[in-house]
Design a protein that fits this description.
Layout (H helix, E strand, L loop, with lengths): L4 E9 L2 E8 L6 H7 L1 H4 L4 H15 L6 E3 L8 E4 L6 E9 L2 E9 L9 H23 L2 E3 L5 E3 L7
Parallel strand pairs: 2-6
Antiparallel strand pairs: 1-2, 3-4, 4-5, 5-6, 7-8
Amino acid sequence: MNLGFKLEYITGFTHRQIYSIKFDDKELNEFRLFFSDENVKSHKKYNRLIAKIGDLLTKRGFRRYFFKFDQCDDSEILGYIRIGSKKLRLYCAVYSENFIIFGSGGIKNSAQRQGTIEVDQAFERLRYAEAKIAQRIGEGNISYLSDNKLTGYLNFSGD
């Protein structure tokens, strides 16, 4: 997999920040793609998910307790928000209580993530991007400002 992408700022509240990934082969960033999906919008837990994101951003922070982390991710960064449904999945990379990057996801229709193609692809694309982002952070090419906004080289197109 060799996909170009860039990190896009979504929103923030005081010192908490939300970013998403905009892949070169997509019109929208992954966060907006997820919320524009009609199947996602019609899911019974959709409104609960939106409320949970608002609550995490404005009150509780992105604490690990609120996320289910994928068993195949040894770094325990990649997961999805717990909302009482294992089917509706919005994948994310949780870096700290104050900083998160949202990918996409969908509705899981099988026992395992890998059994639902769109959900598995969303997770794998996020995993790919997160590895590139972690590398840049480790090299010092991306860093956090005092309010947890990112600075540095946020465009991964052509890598």
